[in-house]
Amino acid sequence: MADANGAYGVDPKFQQYYTEILANLNPQTIAYQAPSVDEIASQISAYLRPAVDQQIANRRLSTLQQRAATDADAASRGILSSTWVTDIKNRLMQSEAADVAAAESDYRAQLLQGVYNRQQQEEDRANQIAMFNAQMRQQAEKDAYSRAGDMYNLYLQNKKPSGGKKKPEEPLSKKPDEWSDEMEAAYQAWLRQGKLPVTTSGRAGWRSGSGGGTVNVALTR
C-alpha cells in the first residue's frame, strides 16, 4: 500500500484528500470464491459415475445371462441340482464381484485425480486473481497519492495565515544558492538547536558574504 504520509508528513488535510480520492477511484477488482473439495468432487462424479454405473450394470447382466444359460444346459442334461452347476454359478458370481470391485476402484482413482487436478487449477486461478486485484489497488493508491499531492500543494499555495494578508513562507526544501561557510555553520546550528542568528530585519537568516545582504529563509523541522 502506498504510504499516505510520505513526503507530506502527517498533515490531516493531505490525509483527507488521499482518503477521499482513493474512495472515489474505486479500483475494479474481481471477486472470486473457489469451490470446496466437496463441490469439486460432486461435479467430477457427476460425469464419471454414469459411465461406471452402466459398466457395472452391463457386467451384472452378463452374469445373469450366463447363469441362465448354465441352468438351461443343466436342465437339458438332468443335472440341474448337481454340484457342478452350483460351482459354475459361484465362479460366475465371484468373477462378477471382482469386475465390479475393479470398476469401483478405477472410479475412485479417477475421482481423486480429477479433484487434485481441479484444486491445482483453482489455486492457480485464485493466485492470478489475487495478484490482479493487488495490482489494481496499488495503482489506485498511487494515483490517489499523486492527485492528493497536487491538491495539497495547491492548498498550501492558496493558504493564508490568520490575521494577515501575506502568504506563508515556503518551507525550506533546499539550501539557498548563496551558501557560505558561515551560512552552513548557522544551518547546522539550527539542525541541532532550532536557532538561527537574528538579522536586523527581525527574521532568522544568514548574511551573505558577497553583497552584504541577508538571505532570509523560513525553516521548518
Describe the structure concisely.
With 221 residues, the chain is mostly helical. The protein folds into two domains: 6-158; 170-221, no CATH class. It has helices at 12-25, 37-77, 83-158, 181-193; strands at residues 205-207, 214-216.
What attributes does this structure have?
single chain, 221 residues, mainly alpha, 2 domains, two-stranded antiparallel sheet, 2 strands, 3% strand, disordered C terminus
Task: Describe this structure as you would to a colleague.
With 221 residues, this protein is an all-alpha fold. The chain folds into two domains: 6-158; 170-221, no CATH class. 65% of the residues lie in helices and 3% in strands. It contains four helices and two strands. The protein has helices spanning 12-25, 37-77, 83-158, 181-193, and strands at residues 205-207, 214-216. It has a two-stranded antiparallel sheet. Helix 1 crosses helix 3 and helix 2 packs antiparallel against helix 3 (83-158).
